Amino acid sequence: MHSHNDDDHSHLTDIEARVRALESLLSEKGYIDSASVDKIVQTYEKNIGPQNGAHVVAKAWTDPDFNQWLKDDATAAIHSLGYTSRQGEHMVAVFNSTDKHHLVVCTLCSCYPWSVLGLPPTWYKSPPFRSRAVIEPRAVLADFGVDISTSKSIEVHDSTAEIRYLVIPEQPENTENLSEAELAKLVTRNSMIGTALLSHLTVGS
Amino acid sequence: MNSGADLGGMMGFGPVIQEGENESNFHATWEERVLGMTVALGACGLWNIDQSRFARESMQPADYIRSSYYQIWLYGVTKLLKEHNMVCEDELVSGQPSLPPVPIKRKLLPNDVMPMLMAGGPANRKEQTTASFSIGQQVQTINAHPSTHTRLPRYARDKTGIIKKIHGVHVFPDSSSQGLGDAPTWLYQVSFSATSLWGEDRNERDTVSLDLWQPYLRAIA
């Protein structure tokens, strides 16, 4: 574990003590059960993460009916795979294509599709991303090493309501013979936010 | 409110710094506890998600911008705990209870965690009216600067966009965040050209889409 903001170590120690005191106070007053807190943390550490979204994407690539269902009603399609959890109650899937690239942000807080991607990475919650994604998406993508041709349109989705967006990246070339499970392994978290492309992937034979 | 949280379009923060695909969810134990406590306290039923967001964005703007995500969560949940008299300042300082607990609607028990997480909290409500706007229609966003919670960011106020999707009827955060009820209303996906939001030197093919409630929108005659 390490700090990756500007806090010095003593500040972190201070906040660690404050949070510990708060948890013991809330437990003593009967508002929370620490075992429930453990279980919430463990669920996001072990069970709910980008592997869920990767499954959705791989299925979209291999199953035309599911692909169409995602376009028509992403909430029902994603829930059918068991990914119903909070911050995924209302889903929209947006499909990258040869003429359009999608990028997801939440400028007002850090709304993110937890049910399919887990908890958001630090950069997604940080002021540089939240401030710049809407005004200079191409420069933000350049920070990720992604270059989108100026002849291709970018649609930025600012997640202002309870609708959560999942980007369906373009399938890498020469992967038509891979199984759904093999394809899912190629799908990265960032590609489902729109800050990575998979099209440049070279897949071994 | 025109809060420190309303960051869209601000400048000067520098590049996006990433830690890579395998970044851990938490960077200190206290962050885990803040996430878990915030979710567990939400289950007590004394406030909703919009009140949580309003509490977080109420942080003094300079502090908000300087704070990490879980520091902001800790600030927000502490504010709500005090506002609902669940804890007082003395107790926060001492870590010891000095006042009796207030009634809560439920306490989240370990066996209820998975069902609660899997059920989520849908924000859609029954449609009682028909939508005022249709797909493809041009609309103008209102120019409003409420001192309370709103989900119409500053950069998208008083702008012209196009209705792209009708999401249905959803809880209206401007009401819900103030404890004034769901006030459900139609929610739309509205698309704005980058040039209309940010000026002529932007790529004319680029767009920004926001999900906006009907009270934020006006028909263009």
| Number of helical regions of chain A | 10
- Integer count of domains of chain B: 2
Q: In percent, how much strand structure appears in the residues of chain B?
A: 15-25%
Average pLDDT level of chain B: 97
How many separate structural domains of chain A?
A: 2
CATH T-level topology of the largest domain in chain B: SH3 type barrels
Give the integer mean of the pLDDT values of chain A: 93
Low-confidence stretches of chain A: 1-8
End-to-end gap of chain A: 38 Å
Please give the largest β-sheet of chain A. 2 strands, parallel
- Topology, number of strands of chain A: 4
What CATH first level of the largest domain in chain B would be assigned? Mainly Beta
Q: Which two chains touch over the largest interface?
A: A-B, 86 and 94 residues
Kindly, what is the distance between the CA atoms of the first and last residues of chain B, rounded to a whole number of angstroms?
29 Å
* Strand proportion of chain A: 5-15%
Taken in chain order, the helices and strands of chain B follow as HHHHHHEEEHEHEE
CATH level-4 homologous superfamily of the largest domain in chain A? Nitrile hydratase alpha /Thiocyanate hydrolase gamma
User: Which range best describes the helical content of chain B: under 10%, 10-25%, 25-40%, 40-55%, 55-70% or over 70%?
Assistant: 25-40%
Question: Please, could you describe this protein's structure?
Answer:
Chain A is built from ten helices and four strands. Chain A is an alpha/beta fold and 205 residues long. In chain A, the strands form two sheets. A two-stranded parallel sheet of chain A has the order 1-4. A two-stranded parallel sheet of chain A has the order 2-3. In chain A, helix 3 runs antiparallel to helix 4. The longest helix of chain A is centred in the first third of the chain and has 20 residues. With 221 residues, chain B is of the alpha+beta class. In chain B, strands 1, 2, 3, 4, 5 and 6 form a six-stranded antiparallel beta sheet that branches. The radius of gyration of chain B is 20 Å and the shape is globular. Chain B starts with 28 loop residues before the first helix and ends with a strand. Classes of the chains: A alpha/beta (205), B alpha+beta (221). Chains A and B meet through helix 1, helix 2, helix 6, helix 7 and helix 8 of A and helix 1, helix 2, helix 4, helix 6 and strand 3 of B.
